[in-house]
Specification:
- The structure is a single chain.
- With 297 residues, this protein is an alpha+beta fold.
- The protein folds into three domains: 2-61, Structural Genomics Hypothetical 15.5 Kd Protein In mrcA-pckA Intergenic Region, Chain A; 65-159, Pseudouridine synthase (2-Layer Sandwich), CATH 3.30.2350.10; 163-264 and 291-296, Pseudouridine synthase.
- It has helices at 15-21, 26-34, 109-120, 147-158, 232-239, 286-296, and strands spanning 2-6, 38-41, 44-45, 57-61, 80-83, 87-92, 128-129, 138-144, 163-171, 178-182, 185-187, 195-197, 205-214, 218-225, 262-270, 277-281.
- Strands 5, 6, 7, 8, 9, 10, 13, 14, 15 and 16 form a ten-stranded mixed sheet that branches. Strands 1-4-2-3 form a four-stranded antiparallel sheet, with no helix packed on it.
- A hairpin with a 7-residue loop joins strand 11 (185-187) and strand 12.
- The longest helix has 12 residues, at 109-120.
- The protein is elongated.
- GO terms for molecular function: catalytic activity, acting on RNA; pseudouridine synthase activity; RNA binding.
- One of its GO terms (biological process) is enzyme-directed rRNA pseudouridine synthesis.
Length: 297
């Protein structure tokens, strides 16, 4: 994988410092230097101490990454929403696990992506899962195609520059049509899975807006995350007294839907390598859309 930049007036410095300025970590610089990658300036291989001048073209050739032999490849289809040389963004279906675990080594998002890479004969076949979704949550998931793309997207996440938007069906009528839930989340002392609102928890902020009040005392809600804690939306909505439809782990009823009614509907971010502003959307899955339509009549 090759990444190119042109040096501007503000960029006149040593190559190593230039790369760091572009978000290339010391670890990636070291791996490139010692594991088969290269640094080129105007087509000539150079050391990282090279002094750069305005107009120079810098080329970073990343070394080939060795794929994880323990990750099997499966060949079920992917619903691809966006793809370029650096990222793959998919619409994850309900019921599919994001990454394998000791309890589940079969079909996952990661295994399907590996199968897709093999089918396409991509040079880099390592699967970098940047964002994950719970098994029974559907919607947008982002995979990086190389370690640099992964690192740069991680920086966006850490600085809250990747906007993630969700749609959910919650029980009850929200007293306020929109607002901010600011409540720290911690692991439950009684469960390895469940999370709870607790003073000793990590800062957790969710913004919400009611889209429509439906039959059966159900609210159709749009939500966005300011932080990214496990089960954050599910915990926060339950804490407000409005658990998600189907989410029995956090007090929701399965009468209308047998899984949590939660869908990641869109991502919005500035591409860290091209500067392009991207918005990627995924439509509601069939079961949630059908329920919304029925309750809106």
């Amino acid at each position: 994988m090759t990444v190119k930049w042109q040096v501007t007036v503000e960029d006149e410095k040593q190559l190593k410092e230039f790369l760091k300025q572009k978000g290339v970590s010391r670890r990636i610089i070291g791996r490139t230097k010692f594991h088969g990658g290269s640094f080129l300036v105007n087509g000539q291989e150079e050391r990282v101490r090279k002094e750069l001048k305005v107009g120079d073209w810098v080329e970073l050739n990343l070394p080939i990454e060795e794929p994880n032999p323990n990750l099997i490849a499966t060949h079920e289809p992917l619903d691809i929403l966006y793809e370029d040389d650096h990222y793959l963004i998919i619409n994850k279906p309900v019921g599919l696990i994001s990454v394998p675990s000791s309890a589940h080594r079969g079909d996952t998002v990661a295994s399907r992506v590996k199968g897709y890479y093999l089918k396409k004969d991509y040079q880099h076949k390592v699967v970098h899962v940047v964002t994950r979704l719970d098994r029974y949550t559907s919607g947008v998931m982002l995979i990086a195609k190389n370690t640099l793309a992964h690192s740069l997207m991680g920086n966006l996440l850490n600085h809250q520059k990747l906007e993630k938007h969700y749609e959910a069906l919650a029980q009850g009528h929200l007293r306020q049509s929109e607002g901010l839930i600011d409540a720290p989340i911690a692991r439950s002392s009684e469960s390895i899975i469940e999370r709870v609102v607790a003073s000793e928890g990590k800062p957790s902020i969710t913004q919400y807006k009611m889209l429509n009040y439906l039959k059966n005392d159900i609210s159709h809600v749009s939500l966005s995350l300011h932080t990214g804690r496990t089960h954050q939306i599910r915990v926060h909505m339950s804490h407000m007294g409005h658990p998600l439809v189907g989410d029995d782990l956090y007090g929701g009823s399965k009468e209308l839907l047998d899984r949590q009614a939660l869908h990641c509907s869109s991502y919005r971010f500035e591409h860290p390598l091209t500067g392009e502003c991207l918005e990627v959307q995924a439509p509601l899955p069939e079961d949630m859309q059908r329920l919304v339509d029925e309750l809106a009549k």
